[in-house]
Amino acid sequence: MDALTHPACRGRYEIDGVFASVVYSGIVKRLVYRFKYKPYMTDLKGMICDLFFEGIIQNELFVDLMKEQFVFVPIPLYRSRLRKRGYNQSKILAAGISERLRGESFVLGGGEERGPAVVEFLERGRDTRAQFGLSQKERYENLRGAFEVKKDFGDALGDNPVVFLVDDIVTSGATMREAGRALKRAGIGRVFGLAFAHGK
80 CB contacts (<8 Å, ≥6 apart)? Predict the structure, then answer.
C-alpha cells in the first residue's frame, strides 16, 4: 500500500498519505493478534519488525521521503490500556524500523550512526472503543478529538521534518487521519502514516 492523499481530498489538516508493508490476512493477522493481545508475546517483535522493514523499503515513494529529515511518532495508547498491556506495540514498531534504518546510506543519504528519532509527541486524551466491528462512520466518530499534542513537542522536533505516524494496522485510516489532524493543527507541515499491515 503506497497511497498518497488524492489531490481532491487534500486539506489543511488532512494526512498526506499512508504506507504499509504487508496485507493484514492469514499468518500476518495471527502474528499481530499475538503481538497485541493476551498473552502479549513481545518476543515476536523481531520477526514483525524484520517483515515491516523488508516490505517498506521496497516502496520507492517511501524511500524518497527517507532522504529528507524525518521522525517517527508512534500512535499512543490510552494510559489505562498501556498499564494493562505493559507496552505500546506502535512504539516497539517505530523503534524497530528506526534501528533497521541505521546505516542504510541508500535511504538516509550518508550512513548515519543512529536511526531516525522516535518521538512521543502525541497522547491519547481519552479512552476510545476498539475499532474492530465499527462502521467507517463510527470509527471516525469514536476517534474524533482523541489525540492531543504535548506542549513541549516543538522543542524536540527540530527543523520541520517529515513526520511518520507509526501503527500496527491501518484499515479505514481513521486513527491515522485523526492523529495526523492533531499534528497538523499544531503546525506540522507534512504527516504520513506508516503501518505494518493494511486491511479492509
Answer: 127
